[in-house]
Amino acid sequence: MSRKRKNVAAEDAGDQPVYLVVEHKVEEPSHSIVIAGTTTPQVMIPLRHAKRGMSFAVVGSRWIVGVGGDYRCHFTIYDLTTSTESGGPWLYTNKVNPILIPRRDMLYILSSRPKIDDGADFLPWFEGIIFRDGRAPQMGCFPSRKLPPPPIFPYCINPLEYLHPPDVRYTAHAVVGSHILLSVSYTASDSLRQQLQMQIPPEEKGTCAFDVDTREWEMVDSKNLPFVGEARPLGSHLFAAARSSDGATAVYHIEILTCDSTKKTHLSILELPMEGRRIIQGQLFSFSGAGRLCTFDVRFTDLVNGGALKKAFVVHSTYRVTVADATGETTDALSSVVVKRSHKRSYKLVGRSRLLACPTPVVSALTL
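The structure corresponding to this sequence follows.
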């Protein structure tokens, strides 16, 4: 085996820590961080500032940040370098299960179900928190920036929609270069369907892109993104995501292009055929830019006390994804992708005194 292949194998097989954010059935604490994937015993760290309805992300390879919920305290920040937890700043409005997008020194926070009435997920629907000079924002302050709402959110609606607000739900996003791609779906309200006495199918609003440099939104496609959830970067404009038609894992080539004559931005997206191993469906995660993809599949057998879980198992599989030509050789040209599984691990989650939530206790799987 060549030196390069030995290094790759050692890198894939090495003990890389995985941070699993699990949700508990009890109210306090609602979440904990489980550190797994290393040779040391598994550690479960309760998050005292966490609340139900939070989403989690890694910011700056240093902080695990939880944002959102139905409570006034919208943040929990866990510092991996000091193993300490602190509260964070307030958002202008509560956001339940928001979409978190770390980018450079900014954490972008987007409503997953924007509302037009006062309360959770009301305006502003899009905010940003700065993590600058190696420091996290302080608890109790308002350092968030109000950002312009996406054009596909219900900012400008007609009188009928105002009387019968549609159910607007996030469907997919991806970070491509300096742009954040976003798609949503509109579902007619129950009151409108009853009034019209007819079924109204969900409506797609197309795909828009936010330029993080100019802080402007622009429509880039009349169709929604062909996947659901976040597209995970694999490098060289390749992304892995769950196909919207059947939920299977697919690999896409995504680019944001600018027309020379009109200077308008448009989206180029192509699904590539996959060869080799079948990717086990689960919660996707990727090591950014390294051509590696991880899946986390949560399994359990026993339910206790009102649908809670005492223990569960997480199957963690890692795959290498490369582009190959017709002869099977690695290439930069678009043809197909070859998937190889490099390793598979299992972690046991035990609730002990804090029972785990059901049906899936793992709300986020993170690594550095």
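The radius of gyration is 21 Å.
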